From TrEMBL, chains A, B, C:
It comes from Candidatus Syntrophocurvum alkaliphilum. PANTHER family: UNCHARACTERIZED PROTEIN YJBQ-RELATED, YJBQ FAMILY PROTEIN. Gene3D superfamilies: YjbQ-like (2.60.120.460). InterPro entries: UPF0047_YjbQ-like, YjbQ-like_sf. SUPFAM superfamilies: YjbQ-like (SSF111038). This is Uncharacterized protein.
Amino acid sequence: MKFYTDYLWFNTEKRREYIRITNQVRDALEKSGIQEGMILVSAMHITAGVYVNDNEPGIIEDLDKMLEELAPFGPEYLHHRTGEDNGDAHLKSLLIHHQVILPVTDGKLDLGPWQEVFYAEFDGRRKKRVVIKVMGE
Amino acid sequence: MKFYTDYLWFNTEKRREYIRITNQVRDALEKSGIQEGMILVSAMHITAGVYVNDNEPGIIEDLDKMLEELAPFGPEYLHHRTGEDNGDAHLKSLLIHHQVILPVTDGKLDLGPWQEVFYAEFDGRRKKRVVIKVMGE
Amino acid sequence: MKFYTDYLWFNTEKRREYIRITNQVRDALEKSGIQEGMILVSAMHITAGVYVNDNEPGIIEDLDKMLEELAPFGPEYLHHRTGEDNGDAHLKSLLIHHQVILPVTDGKLDLGPWQEVFYAEFDGRRKKRVVIKVMGE
């Protein structure tokens, strides 16, 4: 059984950004040499997410708009009593989820035709990490 | 270490359908011969989901109603500039999540008494796939 | 390849509670002796969730408030035709998701500085379980 672990670093310019990371995941898979297994891609921060969906700018804006409606930036969250201003980012991260598992079959990411992996930053402009862990044979 | 990969095909009559697939997952587990491990069940399309909950028609309708409130079918999503009309289906998929992992213990799905696996179609009437990947020993 | 499976029992005093279980997951990891792999932490009931976020009382209240807005306790869900009164709890569980996967690297939970694992009870005052499955080498 083989394992390969890698970390991606992000430091976005904007507070919220959606960054495609499918190629970085594919690089980790190639370095691992694994033919069958799974890859965990998981945000290491509580104000960011990882998801799989379409690499189409419109749907990314639609997603951002929906998350802003469900957990808007601005109001006085109870979390802000700590001095933070990112309560919305925690809630957005929980709604979109912070991780995905990607199947590996015959040495390849076993994704559907339009599936791409995204890092969703909800409280950027600081250094943050994602862990990629490949596991299999 | 053993792996077993299978694919389920769907082509629903309605735009939105919720289909129980616990038995198909159990079949894959039996074919794998695995006694200890995990099963990834993951939609391969960006307008469908996979979730675990109750096989009770009322709660399935309640879920559909909530998703329609949070990401309704109809409005002009930005995604529709591409000619598509399924922006809501992408967002519903992201809210419900597109995958689950099921634990396998002593050769059986290690689920609680009411847990059932569902495929959630949000943009049906076309051929779509789910990957089932069993991994363990 | 090694596996270690453990179960946590809960019987909360309140209908809704958010309980930190990072230490129990770490205990399971130590008992497993696994150095590299993944841990599945998954609620075995359809009215509870498991998530990773901040152990800060304000954000936990903010999360509870958001879930109450999206799937409030009280209204007549269709699920209640069965005699149940917990339709909201099913929907809250689906929104927050019922499981997480934690990476294990060098014998340790490979979490970011503020990441803690939580059990989210949405229909308590009865005995309920979470499965912890450690898998690796």
